[in-house]
Structure formats: structure tokens, C-alpha cells
Design goal:
There is one protein chain. This protein has about 240 residues and is an alpha/beta fold. It contains 6 helices and 12 strands. It has a 6-stranded mixed sheet with strand order 2-1-3-4-12-11. Helix 1 packs across helix 5. The longest helix has 15 residues. The mean pLDDT is about 95. Forms a heterodimer with MurT. Keywords: Cell shape, Cell wall biogenesis/degradation, Glutamine amidotransferase, Hydrolase, Ligase, Peptidoglycan synthesis. It comes from Qingrenia yutianensis.
Length: about 240
């Protein structure tokens, strides 16, 4: 079994330690004997999505998002086909916003890929702080940190989770993130996956099952990851 991760534009979209998510996925696969290759792509590189099992898009500032979106729109049909055919994609913060219909800034609208039935509008103040979700998607809690001015609104998808502590997509709905097919999109960073091994394994499983439905993920040591996760739960939910 070999899994190839395509890390899109890490030189532009690495605002929140997103390489930590790649490291977490890689470590957890290699611990199970799964061969792993990471392919970083720059803004001028050609991307063959048929070669990729997991695609990761991180977060960046509005300026970086504008640059990236222009590139993504040139390959919109390729990345849409990848998602619709069951490809695994994880997107954080700015990457999350770019998958929707648009991101409305104060004086400019960033056109999105329209892969997700969502849209984002710039708001004030920024929504900043630790956040905890109750996620039906993985059957447990998800923890992270959010720092976003955008308010994202879901039209027809399920959220990643219900907010137990923090703000979430728009600070009012009580929900955070989106899941669609094998796409997981969220504002949670810090990075996200080292503190949420169950979610990391769900992403891995989605990719592995597409290649071999009979493959079973073995249990691996996750004491450090679970300790980091549980610390956030105990500190902010007082449990």
C-alpha cells in the first residue's frame, strides 16, 4: 500500500503550521507500514490529481488566497473531478473558503471553486480562540484553534461538528466546518491533526479504502496526541 499526499502551495498557504498536518498524516501511515510520499506543488507546477490519494490545502492571508485562487480556477475541472470521484481532500481555513462559491471581502470578491455549497463573507471582529467540536463524522470531539475574519455559511452540506466551545463557521450557527464525500474542510488549525488522531485516521482511511476496501488500519500508539487533545477538553470544558 502506498499513499501519495499532494500538498498544494505550501510556500503560500502555511500560515498556521499546516505542515504539521502533513507530518501527522505521514507519521501515522508509516507507523502502520503504509508507504507515504509527499508531493509539494508550487503555484506554477502542473498537478496531476490522478497521481494523488490525499490533497491538502492550507491557510493563508487574503493576498495569498487571491494568488492561489487564480491558479485553482485554471484547474477547477480537474480538482472537481477528483472530489466527485471520491478523492480525499483536507482543507484548512483559507483552503476551506476557496472551496466554496465565493469569499466576499470589503472591496473585492474572490471567486471560489464551487466544489462545496458554501459561501464566505468578511466580518468583524475576527473570531479568535480555542475551539472544541462534537463531531458525528468521527464519533468524538475535535479540538483546535480558530482565527478568521470570514463568516462561512453552509447551504446544503453537513458540518464537521457542533461547537461546544468557541465560535465556529460564523459565530452564530453553532456549527463548524463541512464534510462532503471525502472532503473535510474546517477553520481549525494549530495545526489540527496532531491533536486529533481520530480525525487524522479518518482522512487516512478514506484514502486507503478508495485503493483497497479490504485494508484495515491497525491500532497505533497515540498517547502524546490524545494527551494534547484531552488537555484542551479539560481546560475549556472543565471536564
Amino acid at each position: 500500500m502506498k499513499i501519495t499526499i499532494g500538498h498544494l502551495f505550501p510556500d503560500l498557504l502555511n500560515l498556521y503550521g499546516d505542515r504539521g498536518n502533513i507530518a501527522a498524516l505521514t507519521r501515522r501511515m508509516q507507523a502502520r507500514g503504509i508507504e507515504t510520499e509527499v508531493k509539494p506543488y508550487g503555484i506554477d507546477d502542473d498537478i496531476n490529481f490522478a497521481d494523488l490519494d490525499i490533497v491538502f490545502i492550507g491557510g493563508g492571508s487574503d493576498r495569498e488566497q487571491l494568488l492561489v485562487c487564480k491558479k485553482l480556477l485554471t484547474i477547477k475541472s480537474d480538482i472537481t473531478q477528483y472530489v466527485e470521484n471520491g478523492g480525499t481532500l483536507a482543507a484548512v481555513c483559507g483552503g476551506y473558503q476557496l472551496l466554496g462559491h465565493y469569499y466576499q471581502l470589503e472591496n473585492e470578491k474572490i471567486e471560489g471553486l464551487k466544489i462545496l455549497d458554501i459561501y464566505t463573507v468578511q466580518g468583524s471582529p475576527r473570531l479568535i480562540g480555542n475551539i472544541i467540536l462534537d463531531s458525528d463524522y468521527i464519533g468524538t470531539t475535535v479540538v483546535g484553534f480558530e482565527n478568521h475574519g470570514g463568516r462561512t455559511f453552509i447551504n446544503s452540506h453537513k458540518p464537521l461538528g457542533k461547537v461546544l466551545y468557541g465560535y465556529g463557521n460564523d459565530g452564530e450557527s453553532g456549527y463548524e466546518g463541512v464534510v462532503y464525500k471525502n472532503v473535510v474542510a474546517t477553520y481549525l488549525h494549530g495545526p489540527l491533526l496532531p491533536k486529533n488522531p481520530v480525525l487524522a485516521d479518518k482522512i487516512i482511511k478514506n484514502a486507503v479504502m478508495k485503493k483497497d476496501a479490504s485494508f484495515v488500519l491497525s491500532d497505533i500508539e497515540s498517547t502524546l496526541e490524545n494527551t494534547a487533545h484531552d488537555y484542551i477538553i479539560k481546560r475549556f470544558l472543565k471536564k
